[in-house]
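Could you join me in thinking about how sequence relates to backbone shape in a protein? To get us started, please write out a protein record for me. Would you write everything just below, so we can both look at the same thing?
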Amino acid sequence: MFKKNYYLISLWLVLGCLSGLLISSFFGKTEIHIPIYHNISNVLERTSPSVVNIWTSEKFRDWQEQYNKLGRKFNTLVVKERFIPNGSGVVFEKDLIVTNFHVIKYSLKQELLLENHLGERSAARILAYDAEADIAILGVIDPIDLKPVKMRKNIDQVKIGESVIAIGNPQGVGQSFSKGIVSAIRTLNDKKGSFIQTDASINPGSSGGALIDDKGRLIGIVISIQTTTGVDQGINFAIPINNVIEVFNSLLNR
């Protein structure tokens, strides 16, 4: 009888420990790697709803067919407007998106569109920005499927060689993922603070997107690439999450 109860208690203890690990991992509280839960496909599936594509308005001149009072057709040059994919953003809180200021700086008085991982779109407005820090906060107007990102708390423990994944909208092709490592933590000549350097492939349109660790926790906001060709050459940078949170709270007067 005693042996039976001993095995039963042991089983419940094991199940309790496993449940605790899963819950802790879900909230980013443990460093323990759980193979099934932290499989890269599962990580990306859970993180996809936390990153959006940003479309900005662009005005351009184009020829348009018109008719005069006699019904004769002629072409005239008119001003038209269209939305173009211009960058990426990360869901920080319900209906609040963080992106780079340089993604939206030419659209301060124009409408923005957000597109989630399912292709659903919502209008957005610019709530606040810090041009020097290159951070902007957008407010979601129409409800779409979005999920606040999980953030890594121990950002000071990020190590050189650690696996990372960049999520964004490179070249406007739609949400994409690229895997790499942390190449360095360094300063940039024209910017304040330190930055995470990574070789994860990043191209124009990825700015404002997420740099996550292999557990799906946000460690930085993609900011720029160093290139002589205009496309990725494996020298890419992200603003560390602790710096982003500091600017985020300051802009919202928290």
Remarks:
- Residues 2-26 form the longest helix (25 residues).
